[in-house]
Each structure stands twice: as C-alpha cells, then as structure tokens.
Amino acid sequence: MSKIPTPFEDLEPFECLEVRVNHPDEFERAVKNWKAMVQKSGVLNDFRAHSAYEKPSDKRRRKQREMVENIRISEIREKQILSGEWDKRRKRKEKRRDERRRVSQDKQNREEHNED
Predict the structure, then answer these.
(1) Is 115 strand, coil or helix?
(2) CB of 17 closer than 8 Å to CB of 37
C-alpha cells in the first residue's frame, strides 16, 4: 500500500525572516523590507503552489501562459536594449540607488556625530 503524500511534506524547512526596527519611525520601512524579503525568498509562492492540488491540464496551461509571458518580456527587453532605453533606465536606477545610499550614509554620520 502506497503512502498518500501530505501537503508541504516535500518542502524544506526555511529560516525565519527577521527585520530589526531600531527606531519607531522606521517601522513602515521595516515592513516594506520584510515584504521584499518574503517575496524574494519565495515562501508565499511555495505556499500557494502546494496549498491546493493542480490538475495536470491546468498545470500545462499555466506553464504555457508563463512561457508566453516570458517571451513577451524578453522581446520588450530586446527592443529596449536595441533602442538604448535599457541603458537609460539602468543609469537612472543606479543614480537613484546611489542617492539613497548617500542619504542613508549621511543620516548615519549625523546620528553618530550626535551620539558623541
């Protein structure tokens, strides 16, 4: 007699996602960071994928839709690369990221200066 698999039986254990809040004003930012960590870790996707049985025909249809969507995204990306828009977006992203880092570093420097 074969064993009937139970949900989540094949999932590996995962570490708890933890975000520390150093100051009460940073709570919303901490929640945003936590949501990003959950999204990046794929915990919710795994949960949704294993929470209900998916018929093989539905699985094939979903995979086909995903493949078509990935091809569409690749074509858009290719057009952006050829037109130069891709590089412009990348530079804007880098500029915003560098600005956020600079502001964060300035804030830390001010806090360290105030503690002294």
Answers:
(1) helix
(2) yes
**Which two structure tokens, joined as six digits, stand for 14?**
């995962």
19 closest CA partner among 31, 9, 28: 31
pLDDT average per 10 residues of sequence, the chain (116 residues): 56 70 83 88 84 91 96 94 92 93 86 72
Residue 110 — φ and ψ, nearest 5°?
-65, -40
Length of the chain: 116
Structure confidence at residue 63 (pLDDT): 95
Give long-range contacts, CB 8 A cutoff, 24+ apart: 7-15.
Answer: 7/50, 7/51, 8/50, 11/46, 11/50, 14/41, 14/43
Q: Could you state, in order of their start, the residue ranges of all structural domains in the chain?
A: 16-52
Reading the block at residue 108, the tokens are 């830390």
Spatial contact of 23 and 29, defined as CB atoms under 8 Å apart: no
pTM as predicted:
0.49
